[in-house]
Amino acid sequence: LPPGPAPTSWLVGNRNQVPRQKPWRWFQELNNQYGPVVYLQMGRTPTVVIGTAQAAWEILEKKSPSTSSRPRFIMGQEIMSNNMRGLMAEYGPSWRRWRRVLHGSFMQKASDTYKPIQSLESKQLMVELTKSPKKYREHIERYATSVTVVITYGRRVHDIYTDEVVCLNRQTQQFLTSINIPGKYLVESIPALLYLPNILTPWRTAALKQRAIDIEYLTRLVKEVQTKMENGRAPHSFCRQLIEDREKHEMSELEIAYTCGTPFGAGVETTAGTLASFLLACTAFGPSFIPKAQKELDTVIGPDRMPTFDDFEDLPFIRAVVNETLRWRPVAVLGGTPHASTEDFVYDGMFIPKGSTIIANLWGIHLNPTDFPDPHRFDPERFMSKRDYPGPWQHSSFGYGRRVCPGSNLASNSVYINVARILWGFNLSKARDQNGQEIEVDTFAYTNGFNSVPLPFPISITPRSAAHLAIIERENEAAQEEMKTYDS
Ligand code: HEM
Q: From ligand 1's centre to the CA of 462, what distance in Å?
């Protein structure tokens, strides 16, 4: 077996040693102490923590036929979701069908068809940042949410606090996060408890209640799209596509409903959190990279128009800023949902048993000084030349193997277009207090959740010039006209 700390007891193994707060830091320490692959015993489940890009690539990419399943999530997947959420599904025919559908709608070429709405929503984000810069967090969340809901159901989101779809989805995600905490429920370690009657299992009741709420609103949203299709008023959307291709994919109405819930669950907090990290990096490290970024933008774009997707190839430094943002503070800090092995195998002389939970700790992988010297420093220059690093992106933000993030193109496009435009249009620096002193920010102040996103921080965001402001306003006016089609 790989090396690791001794378990504290036969029954719970190492479970009680795992810190409740930011366990990724402890995992990083273990990898520093024991090596790139560490073994833990979580209850009865063998668990492997990977701490380097190379080991993660070898295990999760090269051995992907045996390492692409998920651990059992009894509360979140089996009870609350009746095994309907593909993200937590075990590797098998039903996951494959779900994944094929997502590929068809989100990978490479398909994701290009969403660029127009990403561009339009980004123009609204720009104008919102001019009007109420202190509410930057609300604005980037509205951007990420509205793009997701337009793509999924063909309708916009104007207010993230009152929109019904957003509130219901948020409740679902919060419930899911609150029950998917390792060690919280005994039934996760002793599945035989599932056979007890309902009266003896009160933990089941709340999860079943949430399941009923989810089924009601997820199916209602699909029916709304169906009605719009019948009336000839449904813009193109993921949901409409699924309804049209229903027979080809052999999906039930409920499967369509849950599949449509996927982009919200996986794509909103990740995208908004990454953009928040970008703004935090601007606040903490701005003078070291913003001048170079703005010089590139001024040379290639100039002050008379905003950057677009067509400028992507001509903006190498902006692309480097995007990659560095994804590396510097990986939002899916533990590599997203863990993988699970479906066969015994040997890696570098170490035995990995079938049924192991495998965690690719992105905190350790991205903050490994061998691959990224001075790793906590935000430095886009790392991405200006090709380095010896496994995989297509030179970072590991989107995970590995057959489970690699199917929304990676959509997400990268959102990060690119907003990073390019925000750097083009705004001066970004530390906010100042009443005495005119700069307010320092803490680049480690992040949430403890499944996704780790920056806690609120102050930042100064002001238009670079009157000319930039005029273009931001003009572009937004035209964008609002174009987006009306999603409001009917
Ligand atoms: C910056 C934004 C994003 C980041 C950093 C990110 C990262 C990740 C990571 C690390 C995984 C786990 C991969 C693995 O298991 O090895 C994942 C899975 C996933 N992501 Fe993303 N993601 C982002 C945005 C999105 C978006 C916009 C979507 C919308 C379609 C999406 C959909 C998914 C789905 C469905 C999975 C589960 C795949 C499966 O289990 O087969 N993600 N993502």
A: 32
Which of 188-192, 202-206, 256-260 tops mean pLDDT?
256-260
Q: Is 404 in the pocket of ligand 1 (CB under 6 A)?
A: yes
Say how far apart CA 393 and CA 383 lie, in whole Å. 10
Indicate the annotated binding residues: 405
Q: What pLDDT, on the 0 to 100 scale, is given for residue 183? A: 67
CA atoms within 13 A on the CB side of 1: 15
Separation of alpha carbons 105 and 108, rounded Å: 9
Fill in the DSSP letter of residue 439.
Answer: P
| pLDDT, tens only, 331-351 | 999 999 999 999 999 999 999
429-473 confidence digits (pLDDT tens): 999 999 999 999 999 999 987 899 999 999 999 999 999 999 999
Cα 263 from Cα 148, distance rounded (Å): 7
- The span from the CA of 265 to the CA of 87, in Å, is 9
Q: Is the pLDDT of residue 216 over 80?
A: yes
Q: Is ligand 1 within 6 A of the CB of residue 271?
A: yes
- Indicate if ligand 1 lies below 6 Å from the C-beta of 338: no
> Which of ligand 1's atoms lies nearest the C-alpha of 60?
16
Cβ–ligand 1 distance for 400 under 6 Å, the answer yes
CA-nearest residue, atom 37 of ligand 1:
87
Q: How many CB atoms lie within 10 A of CB 164?
A: 11
407 close to ligand 1 (CB < 6 Angstrom)? yes
* E-only strand ranges, 317-406: 339-340, 345-347, 350-352, 357-360
Burial of 310 (0-12, 13-18, 19+ CB in 10 A): exposed
Mean pLDDT of the chain: 94
ipTM of the complex: 0.99
The Cα 271–Cα 240 span in angstroms is 23
Residues flagged as binding site for heme: 405
| Substitution site in 398, 410, 415, 451 for ligand 1 pocket (most atoms within 8 Å of beta carbon) | 398
Q: In ligand 1, which atom is closest to the CA atom of 144? A: 27
